[in-house]
Amino acid sequence: MENSEGEKTGESKPAPQMQQLCRFFSQGRHCNFGKKCRFLHIRDDAKAHENKTVRTPSQSDVAPSHSEVPGGRTNISRAAPAAGRRPCRYFISGHCTMEDRCRFWHPPQFPQVDDQPVPGDYARPVQRMRPVPHPNILHEVKLCDLTEDVTRRLRDTEIKQLEKRFPKDKLIIQERSDGMVTYYRVTVVATDPDWPFDLKEIDIMVSFPDNYPQEIFTLDIPLDQDLPPVMARHVQQASCEWLQAKHATNQLLGKVELLFRPFLRWLDRTLERLFTEGARQLKKDIDIEKAGLQFIPYQELQATVCEKSEEENASNERKVEKTEGERTLEGPGCDDRHQQQEEEEEEEEEEEETSHLVENIKISGPHRGTEVKLLGLRLGENTATVVAQRITVCLQCNRCKITADLTLTGRTPCTAECEKCSASINAVFRPSMLHQYSDVLGYLDINNAAPADLVLQDCELSVGCLSCSQECPIQNISYGQTKEFNCEHCHNKLSILAESTRFQYIQPRANQTGQSACAVHYKSIRDPAVQKGKPLPGKGTCKHYKQSHRWLRFPCCGRTYPCDMCHDEDQDHPMELATRMICGYCAKEQPYGNGKPCISCGSMMTRGTHTSHWEGGLGCRNKVKMSRNDRHKYANTSKTVSRKAGGDKK
């Protein structure tokens, strides 16, 4: 009867359907519809407690396969994991936006075991446990909790991890002869896929002290590998600095940490930078060795100075002891003799030092002769030094004032005769080194002639490269133009620029014996023909142009002439237009400019544009200065002009 009644009631009343939850309210957010919302406003915890199912011990602990719903129907739960379905990582982490539409498995969230009572027929659900670290593996310990037993365990843990990390072919274990210290030599390979160096691995040797990790482990880079010693020392120094800094930081934080594994991670990240810095240091050492120099670190220099000072102090103490002993043996009457002997010895030492200084001054030699200086000298970034191997000088005879070119090599005397008066001319060139702080090319010793110009285009110079310390020859240098070229050895860019040349005669020093020799010697020497601040010979004019007070420097040969006709008379090559000129009033060399005053003295080197003659299309337009024969002088003089036009002109 009961069954039939139950069947009747089931047939008469339809089973209640499950109403869907409001996803906004169930997630703890605000629902804008409020009470008018057509979904259930129930939290997920209450719904789960409402729909909990009966689990048997034989069923899986993950989720039940069937669950009963009100109305007597059995519903297949979506929580059952299907074959090949993975759990949703967003649901596990806390929230999945897809909810029921997610194609991954959403595992059921069981209530805590301690919060809900478990009936006898229900199996206790499995509680998810957080991963617990192994009790025997220690990585960090507070400094206050550190004991001898913990220290020993930490040290053993570090050694075991080292042996497990590196295979046998990359790990070598060595013990010292007394057996107190064990060394572990391992090979560290770079893991960077874009490693730029050919050497991809480095060997390190470590040893752990007995009180490790209270003290840092010792680190050495063996020198019996392919790594250069300079780079190995740099890597070892940087590694030791990192270990000391890390250990000091841990002490400030009040903890003790195993440092070998963090050190390996740091070394893997910074190995490329350490190799790059070590390679730079290696290149510097090679360049210094090629230059013939020796670099001594400050620490070594300070140690040697301290050792020398200690030895000197010890020797002085011994001398004092000996003198005191001799005085005690000889008696008090000999003190004056010892003082006199000491004073005489000190005077002799001072005389020797002064004589050495005088000899050095004599060897260096004073500057004498005619100084050749390059004005406006500019050397490039990689240009170290410049030395003249051969120069061409334009000399002017003292008797007939005829100029001629003379080629001179370093410290080789040259003798020539004047073409007009056959006077003998003697000249010697002593080169000097040009650098950033000296613009003196050398010194000239000339008799019966005076220097007029330096033909820089025919000079042969030797330029020293700052990068490779090698020298390379250079020719065809022009005034006012930057000469750029590449080094023959390292192909670095070199450059040199000179604006002009100045000759200055250095007066000889007067000797104590007499000045007659200097006076006789000065008769055959005359001041340079071209001196800055003084006018040129004839103020730069020539027989062709009497109103042109300048010399023109022609780029075809690099020489100076008053005009193009003078150039064609003296040279046999085609003339090129001049690009530079020398003022006839102050001898200032400057870029070519027609009708412009000198940039130094402000004098007009040519007649100005305000003349009555026709010059380059700019003639005289002043009717007062016009010639009466000029038809433009009286043009339009009798023409009637309106008042308006006359007012506009005024």
Structural summary, described in words:
By secondary structure, this protein is an alpha+beta fold. The chain is built from twelve helices and 26 strands. The chain has helices at 2-12, 23-26, 44-50, 89-93, 148-165, 229-253, 260-290, 298-330, 335-364, 516-523, 564-570, 643-649; strands at residues 66-68, 74-76, 140-142, 171-175, 182-189, 201-207, 218-220, 255-257, 369-375, 378-379, 383-397, 403-409, 414-417, 424-431, 433-434, 440-447, 449-454, 460-465, 471-474, 483-486, 493-497, 500-506, 550-553, 560-561, 580-583, 589-591. The strands form seven sheets. Strands 11, 12, 15, 17, 18 and 19 form a six-stranded antiparallel sheet that branches. Strand 20 and strand 21 form a beta hairpin. Helix 6 packs antiparallel against helix 7. The longest helix is centred in the middle third of the chain and has 33 residues, at 298-330. The radius of gyration is 51 Å and the shape is flat.
